[in-house]
Amino acid sequence: MALLEGKTALVTGGGRGIGRGIVLSLAACGASVVINDLGASLSGEGRDRGPAEQVLAEVQALGADGAINGGSVADYASANAMVEQAVATFGRLDIVVHAAGVLRDRMIFNMTEEEWDAVIAVHLKGLFNVLRPATALMRQQKSGRIIALASGSAYGDPGQPNYAAAKAGIIGLSYSTANAMAKYGVTCNVVLPTGTTRMIDSKPESRVIFEKTGKWPSEAAKGTPKDPDNVAPLVSFLASDRAGGVNGQVFHSHGFGYTLVDQPRILARLDSTSAWTPEQLAAAFESFMAKDVPPRPELPFGREVDRIDPADWQPIDTGRRYWRRAGQPA
Ligand SMILES: NC(=O)c1ccc[n+]([C@@H]2O[C@H](COP(=O)([O-])OP(=O)(O)OC[C@H]3O[C@@H](n4cnc5c(N)ncnc54)[C@H](O)[C@@H]3O)[C@@H](O)[C@H]2O)c1
Q: Is 36 in the pocket of ligand 1 (CB under 6 A)?
């Protein structure tokens, strides 16, 4: 039986980029999919049903069922309508993937309130908007899979304060949802994707590549480690019954591999049997904790993977291998 036979899914932002690859993978695994997409520009303006219609045709060519929804996930009533559409069309809703996204990059000291609000509305409030009705449904049916796309930018991209905040908020909301919904058999996990889509084409370094080669980086990504479709197998697995034991986790999809990201862990503590004065704390901090303060957060996952000692990899089969951080319980 196919991995997602008989399941139904809602994918926000399913008309383009990473979301499109996820829709096609879910459909190829046997799921019926509501493809939500506003058909907006990268900054969130305009509407176009074309991309979602195109993906629907591709879903149908795979022999799967699909439907399109052109509402904005940033609008509470429209997001409720997406969930209702899935149930009205396919009878139930097993899987929700939130891949809709917009960018309004600007340094914190230059950002307008409108740029802040627009990005928070689609990414973070958009996730709440679909989760509110979807979790109510999944709680009753006692099953469900939620996968939210965040970003490595959550860990502090300096040029994306609105986007970093929205994506870090998605991680917090997903941890909360995972804890709230575990007893109902529902999981909620986060994927930090990478893939050369139009979102990456918008970076200044991509324009340099376009001017040199006449091709945007997204046009050269197909089949390479930068292909946005590389994210989809992880999402389809997390959407399946076989991922029932994976809840409240964050994965980084990078190239042809998937990294499990650690949860925040305690590093050091100054302890006392009575309250500290600020001066006492300053003195103890300088003598003890200062040496344990890590560098400012980076966006290190891809680079860290590239630095792993070749001898530390465990072979799986041809071309595939596994690494885990040393010192973890077996
Ligand atoms: N491309 C990357 O390397 C990368 C890295 C980290 C995170 N992400 C995240 O992955 C997701 C997909 O990004 P992508 O690169 O495929 O971008 P994309 O621009 O190719 O696709 C995003 C889609 O979301 C749709 N959308 C925008 N606003 C919407 C709204 N209000 N309601 C419904 N749909 C809306 C757009 O029409 C578009 O089709 C986003 O959440 C993005 O932040 C991407």
A: yes
